[in-house]
Write a structure and sequence with these properties.
Elements: E1 5-7, H1 49-57, H2 61-66, E2 70-72, E3 75-76, E4 87-91, H3 121-127, H4 130-146, E5 151-153, H5 176-191, E6 196-197, E7 199-202, E8 215-217, H6 220-227, H7 229-236, E9 242-245, E10 249-250, E11 253-254, H8 259-269, E12 275-278, H9 287-292, H10 311-318, H11 324-340, H12 357-370, E13 372-376, E14 390-394, H13 419-426, E15 432-436, H14 473-484, E16 488-494, H15 515-525, E17 529-534, H16 542-547, E18 550-554, H17 561-570, H18 591-594, E19 603-605, H19 614-619, E20 637-644, E21 648-649, E22 654-663, E23 669-678, E24 690-699, E25 704-712, E26 718-720, E27 725-727, E28 731-740, E29 743-752
Parallel strand pairs: 1-15, 4-5, 5-6, 7-9, 8-10, 8-19, 9-12, 14-15, 14-16, 16-17, 17-18, 21-29
Antiparallel strand pairs: 2-3, 3-4, 10-11, 13-18, 20-22, 22-25, 23-24, 23-28, 26-27, 28-29
Helix pairs in contact: 1-11, 3-12, 4-5, 4-12, 5-7, 12-17, 13-17, 14-15
Bound molecules: beta-D-glucopyranose (BGC).
Length: 753
Amino acid sequence: MHKKLVILSVIAVTISMLSCSNSKKTEIQMDEDATSKSYQGNPITHEFDEQIDALISQMTLEEKTGMLHGTSMFSTAGLERLGVPELKMADGPLGVREEISRDSWAPAGSDDDFATYYPAGGGLSATWNTELAYTFGFSVGEETRARDKDVLLSPAINIIRTPLGGRTYEYFTEDPFLNKKLTVPFVVGMQENDVAVCVKHYAANNQETNRDFVDVQIDERTLREIYLPAFKDAVVEAKAYSMMGAYNKFRAEYLCENSYMLNEVLRDEWGFEGIVISDWNAVHTSVKSLRSGLDIEMGTPKPFNEFYLADPLIDSVKVGKISEAEIDVHVKRILQLMHTVKRMGSEDRKTGSINTEAHFKDAYNIAKESVVLLKNSNDLLPINTSGINSIAVIGNNAMKKNALGGFGAGVKTKREVTPLEGLQNRLPESVTINYAEGYLERYAPKKKGAVGQVAEVGEVTQEQLTTIDELDPKMLEEAINAAKNSDMAVIFAGSNRDFETEASDRADLELPFGQVELIEEVLKVNPNTIVVMIGGAPFDLGTIKQKSSALVWSWFNGSEGGNALADVLLGNVNPSGKLPWTMPKKLEDSPAHATNSFPGDMSVSYDEGLLVGYRWFDTKNVEPLYPFGYGLSYSTFDIKNVQVEKEDYTKSETIYVTLDVENIGEYDGKEVVQLYVSKPNSEVERATQELKGFKKVLVEKGQTKTVTLELPVKELAYYHLEQKSWTIESGNYSLKIGNSSRDIKNELNINIK
Ligand code: BGC
């Protein structure tokens, strides 16, 4: 532990030695560039189809239906008599969830279910690094195997429609292109470990409010262009082996009995061969669900034989409402998946690994590229440790852990380095840390739903959290004193996984617990204060942006989050994260709120249509607080010499855009070059610009790197409603190259014949 730590908080704190174990080795990011490598998954195997048919012919109806529904919280029935094992699943997006009891949500109390806590979805997407998405998928895939699971309920890829969404932190982005480019390598990486992903939540599940019954209305073009692309590529390119049917309704049908979405789009159009697993308690019928394309019903504690795909389904067969042959179709798919992931019929299934230093390092590598530098106007960052003797570290988030807790899948981990521990690990011994908690995470009495509890129609699962936003005067004084008596201060504020949760959306963009006041008071006594926000979703940072000169955004960032953050603050790592969503100035500026179409009631209509996220802000000329794709570096990059090899293209060609990125600053660093496309005078409504390419590159200081962005012309297509297909419009397009959606450095025109 760092020797000179002075703790000023009235709350007793323990600092775990466990998580300080990482070496002080600093490193500059010198790994390979994130190239536009293409990732392709392996399809479901048909090698065993005859054996599977023979096996099914020996099964009783009861044995078959046992495979179609949960017979424990996270598994379906095996069939010892015929050598069919259980299908074992685990959450989730942050890493392999702790073991849950077989018949309740209570933790199983195992001592062998520790796992690496990986950065949440927002962190991964802020890296804008497709190779790290592959690393994440592969690493968590190894852990899934080591925990002897067959299906990991991840990745969670719903589009961020509103900044208030309770699961914004779990999801990737507001943009369909970034979403699919991260999803594909993630899925490919994970499934290379003989496990299946379960891509969730299919689909149109973009709010927690009324999620159990809300009927979502989205026009077809918006559905195809915004909400489905990542799901589609997960199937078509990455060959995802399973998908999770969402809770809500889409066009009047529950997603788990929505034949349009499951049979027509997913299977017939995209060629999905895997299985559809319901979200936990998202099924409402037997015959209809099965016929609409659902394969497995999972759920929360109730007698497992009462599941719709259990006894009620058997009864339906007996009275002739559905044939046994129809049931065989689903059993066969499940057995095909088991063979594909080598759960059956193979001796050489991968065994995986877990909690390894290599995996912690994967989590670190993602975290270090995810941190977004929002403001650095007085060059307070990186912290120059040679010029200071003391740092005030202020804020509950300096010590807050986010791996477990909250309402939603967490990870039981042996390592979660907090921001304070990260600084202790990385600061030289000569610097004293004066810690003050500053604000408390406090809630007014609230009725919080039990984990996994699902409401009946019309019932609310979880009341909005009511926070207590008055500061404790004594704690405020301690924070002010710590700041006054230190050469500089770092405030760790923002959110946490109790406040941002599954099953409820936030009420507004306000920072809870009196944090704005605390930050303002600290800034008054020590202007050398760096404000670090930790969270997963946009907040109203207007006042803080105005008053502080150094502002950093970090995430629920995994086992090594604190070390990665400290490395960025101290300049061992040059920040290269970019916002994967728009930070609005105020809630009403965001499309779902500007159109007054959130959260709806029994039904919600996505009235902003195609104009989700920055598409709205750019098209309607609304200035955001921080735009999509934004993030500073300690260096400055010059993007120049943007060229295309020619001006005219056919619809089957690829446009190669080359450009030079020169690092004219003092630090080696990574920049994300972004390509946005506009179609002037389009025959259809379009957003002012849309992301159609990006690449993250490492450029050493003083060096120039030539980058090529590949843009297949088919990426320019829009979804044609009458033709029900993707159509590429001929004519002029402008290609805009920049390092954020609002910082376009160069523009070129091309023509499509
Ligand atoms: C969530 C899913 C999760 C499932 C099992 C549901 O409440 O929506 O994302 O995988 O529970 O824990």
